[in-house]
Specification:
alpha/beta; Rossmann fold; about 270 residues; six-stranded parallel β-sheet; 6 strands
């Protein structure tokens, strides 16, 4: 059902790979709510994924490749988006994460630091680079909304989440810091959404991911939030209904983040 919450708004969606992606689901919901979109991902992801299928379903939205660690790529992305929209941008979804140490099976205590720098650059500092590019080009409308996807491992230890925990902590710090400056300058909102573990193509690459999902399901009073639920929440965060929400890390996790223990977990432990 559409409430046309994003009627007339224009946004860039980073990170849609396939139909499992939260970015894919969010793009679909934003389009249903009346938004015009530009879709982007790294060139290699564009070759591996199915983003053209998503573009067709979203009113033939342009697909513009961009390496988020490369400022020239980001400048090109924003300039072409401004030209396509014929005006400034109202919202951005940053759904980007990649860990070389996880991918290559390096334990946290034995991480390769060169790989770690790439992980932090792609997964966290890329948000700073996106915001910096938008800032330099004056690309965002007043009260625009930027959302980046995070995870509770930024605050708590989840052993197999590895260096991505550090990356998410840095991502949330960038959100607060840049959110302050962008709020003062143009009332732009910058927030992170800390989502339940979700069965995406990228998330499933984390060792023991099924354990994350099953444990969170048992520890959440409402159960795990699905990718579709997250997409709906992002729509609200992009809408004018949340104009005074900024610099926040908002837990969208069925209550997991504030639950000490549930009866279901207690009963399982007592068996």
């Amino acid at each position: 059902m559409s409430n046309r919450l994003l009627e007339g708004k224009k946004g860039i969606i980073f990170g849609a790979l396939d139909e499992k992606s939260i970015a894919w689901k969010t793009a679909t919901r934003c389009f249903e709510e009346g938004a015009q979109l530009v879709l982007t991902n790294a060139p290699v992801a564009l070759r591996m994924g199915e983003i053209n299928k998503l573009a067709a379903a979203c009113g033939n939205a342009p697909v513009i490749g961009a390496d988020v660690t490369n400022m020239d790529d980001l400048k090109n992305l924003f300039e072409k988006s401004l030209e396509h929209f014929g005006g400034k941008i109202d919202f951005i979804l940053h759904s980007i994460g990649m860990s070389l140490n996880v991918r290559k099976g390096k334990h946290y205590t034995e991480m390769n630091y060169e790989w770690n720098q790439k992980t932090l650059d792609i997964s966290a500092m890329s948000l700073h680079k996106v915001l910096r590019t938008a800032w330099d080009l004056d690309a965002l409308n007043e009260s625009a909304s930027v959302v980046a996807l995070s995870y509770i491992a930024a605050q708590r230890v989840f052993p197999d989440y590895n260096e991505m925990a550090d990356a998410k902590a840095l991502l949330e710090s960038v959100t607060r810091m840049f959110g302050y400056y962008y709020g003062v300058k143009k009332k732009v909102r910058v927030n992170t959404v800390s989502q339940s573990p979700t069965r995406t193509t990228a998330g499933s690459g984390v060792k023991g991911f099924d354990g994350f999902v099953n444990y969170a399901e048992k520890m959440s009073p409402l159960g795990n939030a699905s990718g579709e639920d997250c997409a709906n929440f992002c729509v609200v965060m992009f809408s004018d209904l949340t104009k005074m929400v900024t610099m926040q890390n908002i837990f969208h996790d069925g209550g997991f983040s504030f639950t000490g223990v549930t009866q279901e977990v207690m009963e399982q432990m007592e068996k």
